[in-house]
Write a structure and sequence with these properties.
This protein is of the alpha+beta class. It has two domains: 9-84, Nucleic acid-binding proteins (OB fold (Dihydrolipoamide Acetyltransferase, E2P), Beta Barrel), CATH 2.40.50.140; 87-254, de novo design (two linked rop proteins). The chain has eight helices and eight strands. It has helices spanning 86-89, 93-108, 118-133, 138-152, 203-214, 217-221, 225-243, 250-254, and strands at residues 9-22, 26-33, 37-43, 61-68, 74-84, 178-182, 187-189, 199-202. A five-stranded mixed barrel has the order 1-2-3-5-4. Strand 1 and strand 2 (26-33) form a beta hairpin. The longest helix is centred in the last third of the chain and has 19 residues, at 225-243. The radius of gyration is 21 Å and the shape is elongated.
Length: 256
């Protein structure tokens, strides 16, 4: 024991993002924690029928963990459920697939292990609570979560001025009805600035994106379906551009 040194124990709470099999009975659990950011830890015996962990280390679970630091992966010694969101989502396919996309997004935005990410953690907890409450359309909840995750990471899209030159579009101008949104440019682009691959977007779509980013649900909930569809396409493309990686779970949300 003297050669191995003291065991480093620590405690943290977090949302289980995903699990994968390890050996015959163990699981590797990926958790976005409050204090330590994203961690990967081993839950020994978690796949056994009489496991002491049970469903406490399944995706969507907000869990209080006791762990000790291992050489390659930390090891979970205790797990207590604070709140399980999974039971409320598994019976509702649109909300379940939306939740999966949120978990994947949170993992992508915390790509460095054990780097504190409190704002992203709180955003995920709030997003899951909103999704489970069922007061808003699942895709609106996801788009709001994606936009705010981008903002936390420093990639908030420019929605009230040109992303290139900073020029604002006056309300009521001849070009106010349709805007040009450049994914690679960082948001709205004025007529004078050239942005390869920029897409045309309705003013109502941009207003919806602004409402979701600000949490103005009263405006978002009554937005027209065509604006919601266009918003989802732009937000998905924008998020995946800045993540430099596709979100596989979005394919299932599209068909929900």
């Amino acid at each position: 024991m003297g050669e191995n040194g003291p065991v480093s124990l620590y405690r943290d709470d977090g949302i289980v993002l995903r699990t994968q099999k390890l050996g015959e009975a163990d699981r590797i659990v990926t958790v976005l924690t409050r204090k330590n950011g994203r961690i990967r830890a081993v839950a020994k015996g978690a796949r056994r029928i009489r496991s002491r962990f049970g469903a406490r280390v399944e995706p969507f679970t907000h869990v209080d963990l006791m762990l000790y630091t291992g050489r390659t992966l930390d090891v979970i010694t205790q797990a207590e459920t604070l709140r399980g969101y999974g039971d409320s989502l598994t019976g509702d396919y649109p909300r379940y697939t939306t939740g999966i996309a949120m978990l994947e997004t949170a993992e992508r935005f915390t790509n460095v292990e054990k780097e504190p990410a409190l704002r992203q953690f709180l955003l995920l907890v709030g997003g899951l609570r909103t999704l489970v409450a069922g007061e808003h359309a699942p895709r609106l909840v996801l788009d709001a979560f994606l936009l705010r995750s981008l903002a936390v990471a420093g990639y908030a899209p420019a929605l009230d001025e040109c992303a290139i030159c900073g020029t604002r579009t006056p309300q009521g101008s001849p070009v106010a009805g349709r805007r040009t949104f450049g994914v690679a440019a960082g948001g709205l682009v004025c007529r004078q600035c050239h942005a390869p691959g920029a897409a045309s977007a309705a003013a109502g779509t941009i207003d919806l994106m602004t409402a979701l980013l600000r949490g103005e649900w009263g405006l978002a909930d009554v937005s027209e379906q065509r604006y919601q569809a266009e918003c989802s396409g732009l937000v998905a493309a924008y998020a995946q551009w800045h993540l430099e990686h596709s979100l596989r779970s979005l394919r299932h949300v599209e068909h929900a």
